What we know:
654 residues, mainly alpha, two-stranded antiparallel ribbon, globular
Amino acid sequence: MASHSGTLPTPLQWVTGIAAVGSAFLAMDSLRLFAEAPLLDFVITVQNHYYYALMGLLLPLCFLIYPTFRSPKSYYFDSVLSLAAFSSCAFFFVNAETMLDFGWEFLAPSYAVWVSYLLWVLIMEAVRRSGGMVLFLLVLVFSLYPIVADKLPGPISGMSSSLSETASYHVMSIESILGLPFRAFAQLVIGFLIFGIALQQTGGGRFFINLAFAVFGHVRGGSAKVAIVSSGLMGSMSGSVITNVLTTGQMTIPAMQKNGMEKDYAAGIEACASTGGVLLPPIMGSTAFVMATFLNVPYTTVALAAAIPAFLYFFGLFIQVDAYAARKGLVGTPKEELPSLSTTMKQGWFYIAAFAVLIFLLVYLQREAVAPFIATGVLVVLNQLSTDNRWNLKQAASFLVATGKLLMELLTIMAGVGLIVGALSVTGLSGTLVNDLLYLAGDSTLLLLLMGAFSSFLLGIGMTVTAAYIFLAIVLAPALIQGGLDPMSVHLFILYWGMLSFITPPVALGAFAAASIAGSSALSTGFKAMRLGSIIYFIPFFFVLEPALIMEGSLLQTLTATLKVAIGIVLIAGTLQSYVIAIGFIDRPGSLGAAGRILVIIGGGLIALPTTEVIGFNVGQVTLLIVGAITASMGILISRRSISDSVLVETEAS
């Protein structure tokens, strides 16, 4: 999401805060949190009323918060755009029931078509301001595609519509701007965004960092392990890699540098941890709820499926950090310099209580939609009872302003991505893309997966996490599913590969943001992050090949598959740092040592590889395990530091 520096003017703070309160009230009322029947049922008689009302509250903010120019001269122009956005949404709000009764999305009065043009253009401009140029160009091309679909060649040809028909369909149907991404936002995601903001505004970030320091700070590489835990937890709440890097990274990166870690290494750890946070249940940056909507399954199914892959990714990070610290001889921070665990828990117990309420409502009562609102209420009330963290009026206002800004940003992005959904729907292109991918892959599931990985990485560049996932779920997921792969595996696969651009050069936006804090080379940090997060490149293939890793199997199958992958990760991650736990240094110099380390990585990969039946190779798991163990053992013997090498290293060190 775009960022905006500086403090908003006071009148705009009032408007943003009021919009946040109004949006939260609409969302809670639609969920019947106040009474058995919505309080506004005399006004909001159809669901579209709610959607247009929500858009009317939030969309106008975009033009005021992100002005055209950083000059007072643009104030009047942006105010006109803001008023136009509110007026067009009000028009569709008033006519929402008529639109449904008379099918305006297919045949609308001319005056309604003209208002559709206006709202379409305004949403495009809002996407440009809040979502960035990459997303804007994608949305622009796709939203105009229905107009020229029949004039394009072969694979990208589709059914065409006139300009007026396209505008009407985009704005007045429930398949485009108000499509699945927007409905998921309005019905599920709003509450979790508010909970995440409340957690940050009440000092949750500081609490998680202190808690992580209290638990891990004294061990070797402790500051890096603190960064992994705290940034992972906060990333799950915020859903934005860049935002998480720029907030928690301000504390974790200097701590790692103080502990003796190189600049680019410290920044790389923060980038990897923040990226992994969006993959971490229970919230997964709200992506879990959008995924549940796509798959039409309960939220808990998605959260459980995502748990083991996320654990394995963070486990790989821990192993690399521990091996790095062992190789560099880094020790933890003395306990007397660290926050006390008991004091930390005493000061921040209410964060744990709010989380407990959230998990109870999500998992036990399965009240996904209302859970975050209740948990936010519990958090705010308990926060006000705390003398250390209690909000004053200014801090409460800051919470409302931050809420309004974040809701506005995500609403505009979801509306923009909805335009892509609508274009694919009205032209039938999604089915064509599926058939083309299946044709190119032939009968090769492996080739289909590799094509899917490359496409996900490419299409995820420059987009926010949620926008990238939704785009891939629409364009790519159906092809992989029709290729015979498990739907849950496919959706997690595209989420993982869509995320990789945050730590993979030449893009590596998360790594570049961390480098700006550490004062390191952006490109060097990107390659360090890529190496540190290398396990993430393999995990998606593992859980596609072995559904037990996403809880689709017996308990024994799940435990066995997880243990095998964990052993493989220990070997691979340790070898990348030339130090394997329980074995020691495997840093023998020269080509022989390098060859040995390559053998260890290959062996670790074979041990971790669950099965090959899905990709057409009939090699049993026992065979893979035995061959992998032999290969890794040979590599360790070859690459272990010899006695003469150890003496030489000690002599050079002295």
